[in-house]
Amino acid sequence: MHPETPRPATGRSLYTPQERQRRDSTVWTLVQGVLAPVQFLVFLVSLVLVLRFLATGEGEWAATVSVVVKTLTLYTIMVTGCIWEKVVFGRYLFAPAFYWEDVFSMLVLALHTAYLVALFAGWLPPRALMLLALAAYAAYVVNAGQFLWKLRMARLQGTLVPREVFE
């Protein structure tokens, strides 16, 4: 958060007027808006491939590649999201408006990274790797829900008339 834009005392507004202006004027908002649905599409394809492998034992290579692609997509959206957060709030992570989303994102990153480490180190057999991928995906779904909720809150707040207008 920029020092010149303190959080409103009520704590209800997701963005100060200055943060909203920075959010609306940075290219990183568009980047996040494009990457989020791309990542979700990659997730859905990978989920189907992982579940197919777990159900039939077939398609191990495709499922593995899909989880790696999903993880790389996650890393991309996380790095660009940190840049977005820095531009809008003045810090790369844990801005008050997105604190709990960022905390949970760390769990999502840890699980996806654990998958990659276990895969490349050969620490887990294929079935266990796919179960680890499912755990990472479950955390991702929760985290995506958190961000969708915040997006909805931001849209609702953007349409409301500020209280100061009536005072």
Could you describe the 3D structure shown?
By secondary structure, the chain is mainly α. 75% of the residues lie in helices and 0% in strands. It has helices at residues 17-25, 27-56, 60-89, 99-121, 126-159. Helix 4 packs antiparallel against helix 5. Mean pLDDT is 88; it is low at 1-10 and 159-167.
Quick take:
With 167 residues, this protein is mostly helical. It has helices spanning 17-25, 27-56, 60-89, 99-121, 126-159.
Q: Characteristics of this structure?
A:
167 residues, mainly alpha, 0% strand, disordered N terminus
Q: Main β-sheet: number of strands, strand sense, barrel status?
A: none
Which stretches are low in confidence, meaning pLDDT under 50 for 5 or more residues running? 1-10, 159-167
Order of helices and strands: HHHHH
Secondary structure: number of strands: 0
User: How does the overall form come out from the CA principal axes?
Assistant: elongated
Assembly state of the chains shown: single chain
Number of helices: 5
Tell me the β content: under 5%
User: How far is the first residue's CA from the last residue's CA?
Assistant: 27 Å
Helix content: over 70%
Compute the average pLDDT.
Answer: 88
Structural class: mainly alpha
- Rounded to an integer, what's the Rg over CA atoms? 19 Å
Question: How are the elements arranged and paired?
Answer:
Blueprint (H helix, E strand, L loop, with lengths): L16 H9 L1 H30 L3 H30 L9 H23 L4 H34 L8
Helix pairs in contact: 1-3, 2-3, 2-5, 3-4, 4-5
